[in-house]
Amino acid sequence: xxxxxxxxxxxxxxxxxxxxxxxxxxxxxxxxxxxxxxxxxxxxxxxxxxxxxxxxxxxxxxxxxxxxxxxxxxxxxxxxxxxxxxxxxxxxxxxxxxxxxxxxxxxxxxxxxxxxxxxxxxxxxxxxxxxxxxxxxxxxxxxxxxxxxxxxxxxxxxxxxxxxxxxxxxxxxxxxxxxxxxxxxxxxxxxxxxxxxxxxxxxxxxxxxxxxxxxxxxxxxxxxxxxxxxxxxxxxxxxxxxxxxxxxxxxxxxxxxxxxxxxxxxxxxxxxxxx
Length: 275
Description:
By secondary structure, the protein is of the alpha+beta class. 32% of the residues lie in helices and 42% in strands.
């Protein structure tokens, strides 16, 4: 469970990285402000987001999760090839001495375990983490086929001058696997910084119920997510905020609702063992 939140963060970050590729495939050149056409905008956005994705594992950061029973703050760092999350605050307050000592003990145990694990166990642990990344790439590849995109214009957002684009599901799209089925019922919007071609914000929501075959579930309207990115160095932007609400029916009858709200901050180059 400790790496699940990190996997979700990276998964949604990849969504932000992959959609520009979709735009390259699906959009014809449209001139904006008489200078830049859509193809150029998207190509530069792809390049910027690829740099972000490559650099992401090099950074440690602070993660603040708003959960049902309160707010927990974690320090997240890459530790011998996969992330480790350590609780550092609860409901905005630092841990008391005994709880802090327990978390430190857990960290030292994990550090020793990963430092001394056999090559086979280390490879298996890292492979599990990388398998999630590969799964994400497969999913994101479908984004190039699932949507039609349109350039809406220019706007100011969070102090950035941005291009605004919309994404609508393609009527002829046929998802090849369960993960991509939800794309058939989603629409979204994207804001790209006009100077750096970085993604400032992306949001999407489910418009109509989507049956998930093989899982006996249905994703319903009310399911939505938003992702915001922020600069962490001269040319790298990483996730700043991720929020998701899920509205579904399990066995096509019982309602199942989940909600996440995660804030990321204090990015810094990793100082611990990463290999």
